[in-house]
Amino acid sequence: MEQEDVDPRVLRTRRDVVEAATRLFLEEGWNAVTHAEVARRSGYSKVTVYAHWPTRLDLVRASVGRICDEVDHPAPTGDLRADLIAGLTDFAGDLADGHLDRVLGGVFERSGSDPVVDELRQQLYEAGTRALEAVLRAHLPAGDVQPSLAMLVGGVLVRGVFQGRPPSRAFVEDLVDRVIPSPQEG
């Protein structure tokens, strides 16, 4: 059924419920996303929520979809170093505000438990790294893109999540300079 063929009330219900589930997921994490709490926050009955999203995983999947649809990356300028620093600083900010680490934590914790969770992990990674990957592809040989992306994103992730220290701009600049040598060094 095409989106335009759906009753506007159904579209509004879906929008409101997914918005409530997404806010809940971002604010409190995976365990907080229950049919009862999503129904309460969205103003719809549990019966309505269950009718469209029969499982908690369906609610989480819809939330991850919304999060990925709303990913906003800095616009590339064509300057490799500046674009990487801007993108990684943006990522660091998303980690520092506490929302992204709750989402990633819930997905990482459940990875390997269900193929849908593994798809969500991949979806989050692709949406979050798409712009950085495009920047790297524009400047590096194809074989260097994925290793460089892993080192850059991994460095910010380790610093922010595992070490519990916000990745400062100075940290990001140093990381970029260590992973991507300047043209005169290359």
Compute the number of helices.
Answer: 9
* Helix share, percent: over 70%
Task: Give the class from helix and strand content and strand pairing.
Answer: mainly alpha
Beta-strand percent range? under 5%
Annotated CATH homologous superfamily of the largest domain: Tetracycline Repressor, domain 2
CATH topology call of the largest domain: Tetracycline Repressor, domain 2
Give the termini distance in whole angstroms: 54 Å
Quick one: how many beta strands? 0
The level 1 CATH classification of the largest domain is Mainly Alpha
Rg, rounded, reads: 19 Å
Overall, the morphology is: elongated
Largest sheet data = none
The arrangement of helices and strands along the chain is: HHHHHHHHH
The overall average pLDDT, rounded, is 91
Domain HTH tetR-type: 11-71
DNA-binding region: 34-53
Protein name: TetR/AcrR family transcriptional regulator
Keywords: DNA-binding, Transcription, Transcription regulation
Provide structural commentary.
The protein is mainly alpha-helical and 186 residues long. The protein has two domains: 3-67, Tetracycline Repressor, domain 2 (Orthogonal Bundle); 72-179, Tetracycline Repressor, domain 2, CATH 1.10.357. Helices cover 73% and strands 0% of the residues. Helix 1 (8-28) crosses helix 2 and helix 4 runs parallel beside helix 7. The longest helix is centred in the last third of the chain and has 25 residues, at 115-139. The model has no long low-confidence stretch (mean pLDDT 91).
